[in-house]
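Retro notes
What went well: the complex prediction finally ran end to end.
Inputs used:
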Amino acid sequence: MDLVTFWFILIAVLWIGYFILDGFDLGVGMLLPVIGTDDLRRRVMINTIGPVWDGNEVWLLVAGGATFAAFPLWYATMFSGFYLALFLVLIALILRGVAFEYRGKHDTARWRANWDRAIVVGSVLPALLFGVAFGNIVGGSRIAPLEGAANPADAGSFNYVGSFFDLLNPFSLVLGLMTLTVFATHGAIFLTLKTSGEVREASRTVALRIGLVAAVFAVAALLWSQAFSGRVAITLPLALIAAVLWLGALWLVLKGKDGWAFLLSSGTILVAVASLFIGLFPNVMPSSIDAAYNLTVYNASSQSYTLMVMTIVAAIMTPIVLVYQAWTYWVFRKRLSTSMIPPQPVLGRADDRFAQTTG
Amino acid sequence: MFLDLRLRLDWSAAEKMGPLESHAQEEAPIMGALDLARWQFAITTVYHFLFVPLTLGTVWFVVGFQTAWFRTGNVKYLKLTKFFGKLFLINFAMGVVTGIVQEFQFGMNWSDYSRFVGDVFGAPLAMEGLLAFFLESTFLGLWIFGWDRLPKRVHLATIWAAAVGTLLSAFFILAANAWMQHPVGYEIDPETGRAVLNNIGAVLFQNTSLIAFFHTISASFLVAGAGVAAIGAWFLMKGRQVDVFRPAVKAGAWVILAAAVVVSVTGDMDAKIMVQQQPMKMAAAEALYDTSSSAPFSILSIGDVAGDQATALIEVPGLTSFMATGSFDGTVQGINDLQAQYTQTYGPGNYVPYVPVTYWGFRLMIGLGLIAALYALWALWRFRGDRAPQGRTFSVVSNFIVLGPLLAISAGWIFTEMGRQPWIVFGEQKTADAVSPLVTPVEVWISLIGFTLVYAVLAVVELRLLLKYIRAGAPEELSDTPFEDSENGSANRMHFAY
């Protein structure tokens, strides 16, 4: 296997890791108003992901960094091309990240309600837009050499020439709805695993309901994606496996086997995303204008020295990261319930100017 | 709307950008995507870097206090850990979320830069993610929620791990930046015209990178030390929790002093390599238009430093020569000579950075840093031995001293980056050639306004939250739920929850 293929796989793995891990905490975030009918319940939900969400989000940053290092032309074309979509994702992640840390730092209803809104919007937007972005990668987007480029055959001149609204094509939107609903379900299943009592019961119902909707979008998106797949013989069976895993996950939710259900919903995400990447290879950003303008692992990659250096770093660091992240999940393995949430720390004195101006 | 904003930005856009603007003017008559992208990078990065130095320094205060508590068992250190830990987290959250933008905006606004340098520049960025971001975020999560889940020793180790993560993060990103100041360990692929890495060791460990690392880290300690000392001084003035906060003032002052020494030494080293690697930046720092031996250092000047002659008001003879060469009568090249020289090497063009920014940025950095060091001496003298005087003047000064080093470190970076212009990668790529070719001004306007608005709102929220938590003081009573208790199942309630 050549280095560029290895890095293509590694970036796929990073995205899969990101979607499985941040997938559930985005899901928990967007379900805040659905399952979290009162503040105590919402705090239970937020605290199930409290210790881990930031570590999960780093998978995205590393996926971005690894793409920059291994496939700079992919990184450059994708993020300049999907400009406004990425801008929205960034704003969403900014508000969401601050919200987790700040929500409990001040004790008025308005303060908490505002941050709750930030968490919901900050979770829905990325979950939807990552799917849309992947739709445009898998399904191809309007990529062409820059007009007047010195060497139009060189991939360095390839740019996204479409508009923001070209990104909102039907296939990509269906894929976006798939990631949105799958993450919501995945989050609800995570909550069944990590809570007890009323929150767990509510999460189970929600997981089943949204899970069935997600199944429809997932089947639609994955079948549609076969039209763009370079390896239908592999990707179609994988799509079917993903569907089976998903139904299995929902069945296990019904049976109350939370851990197995979470494993299977994670498995679904793994298989589904893997099938998209397998169908994409060796392209990284196919052009819908002309196949000659496809960005591929060959024309978009860094050269072998850089890939070798990064391979060594990744080979050493990835196992270490996996071990300590797994340890975190072990440390915080206990289920949470409303009775375990300590009262909100009320700070300051009666003349607290902050409370008066903000509350 | 377009024109209106153009007017408001005019003074800064057209003047501050100075020489570079003239390049842009050729392509885009009105504030084009290039200028907007520059403003966006400046705003998001300067803003991000307000939180970074505070974080880099404060985390080590938290490490220090918690380690002191672990070793002595003295509860005042635990109180300080919790108090500064909270402030640290409020601040860290802002650093993290604004940092996400940093990871992606190279691709968004600077795609031709990303294409040109990705083979080299991407490597340290990816390493930062793998080695540093995972470490910081994972272990900080463990630290925040782990008070009752982890044995004391392990819990202490988590904040150490997170703190090491912040250092690694600084190291890799500064190596990436150093490469832009002084590219090494690469060649240009003759076929594609793009930079290709051929020596990662040279990129990570070149002197430009190592000096920038120690300079930035020590400056960050200075910033955090000023913050800690100022907060402590406020409590002493109020007569609140004096036994807890007196050690904080002293710790803060000692850190400022020690950091100031390292900042000066590394700053001096930095100036000397700058003269070799980017002589134009040094000349622009001093607004030195004509090559001269025994060049003076002007502390203040009047008139237009952007002209081709500046009128110094107060100057120290030979000091610039000393800073640049180590000798009071060393020769320092002037802007005009360098411009001629660069035109010969790189072709026609304007190679002079905008001098007022470099000149005043350089002075602000040094001046405010020096003032902080003097403050530290004053603080240590006042609190020598067991003294705990409650004078008001000291506290008022303390309140302001917290801003000085933060402003200094910002000024330093603005100087460094503006002084490199018109280059984005010195000698290899100009900023004007680095911008995303097809991203429209409208798109950049949207994101520029969006980020700026969100950042402005968050700044207000963060500042108020910080003030609230400072006023609240250190916890009076600590609900001590050690690890051993909670394992027995009796202490079912979480020790800390969002």
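What we learned: Chain B has a mean pLDDT of 86.
What to try next: split runs per interface for comparison.
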